[in-house]
Amino acid sequence: MLAKIYAFLPATLRAYRHKMPPRLREAIRIQQDSSEVLIGWIQLGVVIVFSVLYTLAPKTFGEDAEFAPVPWALSAYLLFTLIRLILAHNRKLPDWLLYVSVVADITLLFGLIWTFHIQYDQPPSFYLKAPTLLYVFIFIALRALRFEARFVATAGKVISILMVTTILAIALHRARGLLVQSVVDSTAARDLSRFVPTEVAQQLKSSDHEMIAGEGEVRQTTVLFADVEKFTALCESMSPTELITTLNEFCIAVAEPIEHFGGVINQFQGDAILASFNLPKADDDHAANAVRAAIAIQKILASRTFGDGLRFRSRIGVNTGVVVGGLVGTSDRLSYTVLGDDVNLAARLEQLNKQYGTQILVSESTYRLAGPDDFSFQRIGAVKVRGRKADTTIYNVDAEISGDT
Fold it and tell me: Which domains does the chain have, with CATH numbers?
């Protein structure tokens, strides 16, 4: 039966059953372990409710009754439930104990129902008419919390209500498929956020339509472009392994102040970093925050070494203007970036640092929006920028004089 049900699952889920990566299997196992903890607490609640009801209910059996089995059965079940709950919290529940738990649930209920005709001096057929029989559905449903059809089927075989068991097993088997797909999707989303900005990954997750290449958002944005001075010469003195390790240390160090001040890193271009403020993450103070991030980067680089004791110097260009941010590429491979003439200008300003012997250059638009009185700006003047017809007024930012950020 389950084999036929399994055929209804999407092909991707059937494939995952056989070659699911270990990390996904571990994620599903964690979810199932959490379900077992929940099941344990519900079982504890059930035995407490049964105990309270028994205590409050009037006792109609006579004094000559041989014994009252209910307190003994509930006490034994309480002890079993507590042991099971402790093991569930410690993630030490073996499969065989789960089957024992199913049997214990049903045995408790049917054992109590069977003793009613003894305790209450009723004919044996009395227990077949007892409304308590309906409680069996509590224990069947309880097995569904684990997303394992085999445990539901076990409970159903014990009580021989095959119709209910079959329907619930079908629903549960398909629900497990959805659980697997959910784990796959959530894991893919976490992996995706490592390759595109987190804000973009969230947009992809919540979008009501498939995002495609060519779609973009236009907004006033401050763009920061940072590059390492004399990086080509540094590469000659390092092995490829040392190079990638050292470069990664640099990227981690530079990323921290950018993210701290609300920026979003769009691209790591070798030793260069392209970051945007106010796109895709909204920020009303984006120009000032970009300047603060640039100052913080220079202070970090001045205070530490990388790799085998190397010191890096970085040139940074900052510009504010209207740009577009969106996905570019093909239908099979997309990446997020910001584009526009003002992005190019930020890159040109970074290069001009070499000509003027500076470390941070900002454009007139960034200077005005950031607040001329909030930083140590030094006007260099209107200069000719490669690729632009009109002159561009630029300013130097002295990271040391600008003070703490």
Answer: 2-192 (no CATH), 212-397 (3.30.70.1230)
